[in-house]
Protein 1
Amino acid sequence: MPQTTPYSSKFNPSTYSHRQPVEENYGGLHYRDNKLVAGSLEALIQLLVPTVDYYPDRSYIFTFLLSSRLFLHPFELMSRVCYLCVDHHRVGDPQTDKKRIREIAPKIVQLLTEWTETFPYDFRDERMMRSLKEMTHRLAFGDELSRRAMQRLIQRLLRKLTTLGQYEESLATSSAAAAATAMDRPVALKSKPQLVRRDECVLNLCDDPFIFAQQLTHIEMERLSFIGPEEFVRAFAQKRPSDNHKSFFSKRKASNLEAYVEWFNRLSYLIATEICMPVKKKHRARVLEFFIDVAQECFNIGNFNSLMAIITGMNMNPVSRLKKTWNKVNTDKFDILVHQMDPSSNFYSYRTALRGATQRSSTAHTSQEMIVIPFFSLFIKDIHFLNEGCVNRLPNGHINFEKFWELAKQVSEFLSWRQVICPFERDRKTLQYLISAPVFNEDELQLASYESEGPENNLERDTRRSLRSSLSRM
């Protein structure tokens, strides 16, 4: 089995010493300073395939499996790898073939183990699972130990895919429940206070900012853990006609990456809803102060995504216009947090803080110190700019592997953050509130804001009148 080591975009010259010239093209591959920078697709596939005396570097395996889906379907790659590993070298003599399979089998198992553990969602495709099972039968021809290892591999993979299916079902159930609750909740009309009971105030549920930030971190880390690395490149790949196939568990291809972005938006609107809902100014001020403290705790934990979602919610117009409420709050702490997430100079302050959190994580003595949850939208944006700024193929048709080393470096850092287990105790009621509590849409938030602190000019008065009329008809 492969040794567990951090992925790296650095090329390991010792691994490829028998294959690599310096500053030359060789066998469809091009190296610069002992680093693979380009190659034909066929040559790169060949470099992935183990032989009796060769096994690819782990960083190369990850980088190629991540990027190859831009050029061919994982099933097509799987078929090529299986053929090159076994069938291509058959000589027709049973004893010779059996001996060769016995020699190569452990390395085939090792490669497939890395594939299934790092990219398990590829195997939701029935054809991928069928190929795995066929490979198990082929290895049984020469090596019983490898056949058993393949069976264990498949069992682990099935457990992962089952857990994924359960997670996606829970997301769907939570979304449906939140939508149903939102239909039943009255519109935010402060002129009818009997319809808006403040018994549901977030402070009545949890008034400890640290515990609240811990529960946010639970949700963040759970949702991060289900994002597959391939989802970062899926958006770059053009849809191919051959993609119209059945997946392993269901026909739908849920994007856990998209679900995570939707969580950020939900949290922002939830923050704004809770601030705008209280009828009394002092209650709104208390909620504001509470969420500022929660944001500070998120920063301390290393949960930058929840931190940014809270700041985004508090900077929405329905909240930011509540001047009388803000005047009752000491905003010094909030101003510092806003500065930390300031987008100027390409988020320089945030990136500095993220590097600090990453360094803390790498030398951590406790699981809490290991937590790093990046501002996810910016992380996606960085990957998007990398993709847009570099071509996938060079003028000679070779794949620009230099680009994919950098892509793999960014995604592998995400994988190291994703694998941390959240150490905090769960608060079931707070978690349920965060996941399913209904939130107001933009119009409802704006009206709640006007009902909290009245319009300041004729345009705002006309807007309030229009919102009251349209929302009362819902």
Protein 2
Amino acid sequence: MAAAGAISGTRSGITGLLRLRRPAARNPAIAAGSLADGGDPIWGRQLCRSLIHLDRSFPPSRIAAAAVFKKGGLLRPVAAAASSSPAEGSDHVGEAEVGFAAKYPALVTGFFFFMWYFLNVIFNIINKKIYNYFPYPYFVSVIHLSVGVVYCLVSWAVGLPKRAPIDSNLLKLLIPVAVGHAIGHVTSNVSFAAVAVSFTHTIKALEPFFNAAASQFILGQQIPLTLWLSLAPVVIGVSVASLTELSFNWTGFISAMISNISFTYRSIYSKKAMIDMDSTNVYAYISIIALFVCIPPAILLEGPQLMQHGFKDAIGKVGMTKFLSDLFWVGMFYHLYNQLAANTLERVAPLTHAVGNVLKRVFVIGFSIIVFGNKISTQTGIGTCIAIGGVALYSYIKAKMEEEKRDNIFVR
């Protein structure tokens, strides 16, 4: 099942949701990994990094053995492997416990990146093709979540992974996050249906600007001037691209902007709603709650049209089999690409993650232009490149700052 990122944007997708996890240990020197400062809450990585700083003579092979996969693809520390004595036969035992992922981490991570990009591109292509003959984004958004929820329920039923219990207190923490997730998802799809996929992703490149503004003016965190300056190319690039975009309309533009705001809202509440639950289960519960949030507007805004002619027109254009097949696969690819995104983000450092997110957006924009043959003006192309370059610069600076903060904490 998908772990809790979020879904599109520089860290839009599911990244904000990953912050829901609380470090399992209570060591203040390490647990101060500073979520409030934008730190990475992935406990397995934090513990391994602290071990490296505490003992720089620690053999690399043992460091690799200090983390193994558990259910959901999450990294966890293995104290026994890290602290095995040099007694006779200990090396043999340690090597026996190291799986393929620990032996070849770069290969596994590369595979995750490839599948993340591949599934994301396929999702965007199928999604847009559906809107070309079935322009009902609220209903399609419900289908996305419905397929994912069914996937989660089946996975729970077979115990892969085991369902984590939830109570009213946890539910209260997750509801605001799920509401932001639902609104951001629906408005993204409204934009995808209204304008070219490449243009929606260009607008969504503004999400770091909204995140920075919310961090400083709502959460009270001081954003360095260098970060604000790095956002200037993003704003300028999006403005240039918007002014000359051939497929521009206000519905698509405003919906993409609302999506940015919604995912920022989700990110804020993700920082506040720290719960001790693995990200796979967190995202499953958020998907279920978000589905209930999305159903009422879909019925109210599109229900009458769907019953009168929406379904009939779609079936008449592509046939019943293809229509149902497209809806199923777009939902499945939506869920799976979010799952791969979460698994990938949990395996890499913030800087690698930041670069990966930028490259993902480049892939999606590039492939959508090729597949759909979207004509873009020279100014739009230049604006898009400027915006993506600004996102890359912002992500690089922010990731370096986060790594330096964590390194300073670990060496104290």
